[in-house]
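Hey, I'm writing a tutorial for new members on how sequence and structure tokens pair up, and I'd like a real worked example in the thread rather than a made-up one. If someone can provide the structure for the chain below, I'll link this post from the tutorial.
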Amino acid sequence: MKKENRGNISEKLVQTIANVLCDSVNNNDIAFEGSNDLISAAVGAIQSISFTKAGKETIISHKGVEKVCPLITEDDINIKSRAIGAIHNLSSGLRVVRILREEGVIACLVSLLSENTPQVLTPSIAGCIQNISREEASRKIIQQIGGVTSLTNLLFTCRDLKCQVCTIGALLNILGPDVHGEVDRKALKKILSLSLFCTQAQSLSKEFEQSLQQIE
């Protein structure tokens, strides 16, 4: 298949998906059976397409980012997971970060860290916040709504290494600019790295104790 044809198909696909998501957002109570499956499939397609630069541009141009944003608060775990995953991919660009900020996504993401969110979602949520925190305006919002506290709590409670690394990256982005001097910045980075080490050591210690109990 020629590259031009693939691009046309991708654009038509995103347009169709955007229309599906737009209908789902505008009609909170969709009447037809299996609607959650359709929305989940649509968001999953957006998530897959958003891995590539061309896919990102197509999604942005068809207002796909704005369509996905409300879905991170869905009760359906598959829809929520795929929406967060798509935003994680898309937020690698500052253009999308600005859209997310304007759509009020930052407060939703931070609140998800404080709620009883399934642990399987926390790495992507932390990754989203890490990406978003590269923008100064977004950093200020994260600080104002208690995001630093939520991220710090996550660092010491989450047992997923990827989640912890993203959390440290987010904290460095948020706190780093306020730390003056190269020595102080290195000290902050070292403190966060030691925190990660302590968390991992604590986790290994618990696993070791459980293993001993099984032997006994």
